[in-house]
């Protein structure tokens, strides 16, 4: 499992782009995690699934509300990662008002989630392999803080905890 001080593993995440530009076409675009975090401070939070209750009511809205404060604290980008495809993440992002605040990154095959060692097996609930709920602050591809939630909890991966860590 990933820990503080580790470099993020190689991997690709998908983001649904609604406006063509900056070398990105409309629709799903692939992004190399190591390249996208190089030279940047990135707040990454992951959750079990798009449109799920805690994720939609608390986790994503908290980061949307705190986006300006996180950027003022030196965070270049905020990513939401979930084991969902880029189409679902794009639609959920529209519903949550994330444009220009939080990048909604799909990990449809759970390959990034497996590489960081933070999978959650929800097969018995009909949801397959998902991501644990966590957040991390990454600087130049290196994990500076890592906040992993216990089962069913939402106490340490929230935006306010990340803001305190970004300001430290």
TrEMBL record:
GO cellular component, one term: cytoplasm
Signal sequence segment: none
Top enzyme class: oxidoreductase
Stated name of the protein: Glutathione-dependent peroxiredoxin
PANTHER family: PEROXIREDOXIN, PEROXIREDOXIN-5, MITOCHONDRIAL
Family from the record: Belongs to the peroxiredoxin family. Prx5 subfamily.
Keyword check for Coiled coil: no
């Amino acid at each position: 499992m990933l820990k503080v001080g580790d470099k993020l593993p190689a991997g690709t995440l998908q983001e649904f782009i609604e406006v063509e530009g900056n070398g990105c076409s409309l629709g799903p675009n692939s992004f190399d995690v190591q390249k996208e975090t190089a030279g940047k401070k990135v707040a990454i939070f992951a959750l079990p699934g798009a449109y799920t209750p805690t994720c939609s009511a608390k986790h994503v809205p908290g980061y949307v509300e705190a986006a300006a404060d996180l950027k003022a604290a030196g965070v270049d980008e905020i990513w939401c990662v979930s084991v969902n495809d880029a189409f679902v993440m794009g639609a959920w992002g529209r519903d949550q008002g994330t444009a220009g605040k939080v990048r909604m990154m799909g990990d449809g095959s759970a390959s990034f989630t497996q590489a960081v060692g933070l999978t959650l097996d929800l097969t018995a609930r009909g949801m397959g392999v998902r991501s644990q709920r966590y957040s991390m602050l990454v600087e130049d591809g290196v994990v500076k803080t890592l906040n992993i939630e216990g089962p069913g909890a939402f106490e340490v991966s929230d935006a306010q905890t990340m803001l305190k860590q970004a300001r430290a």
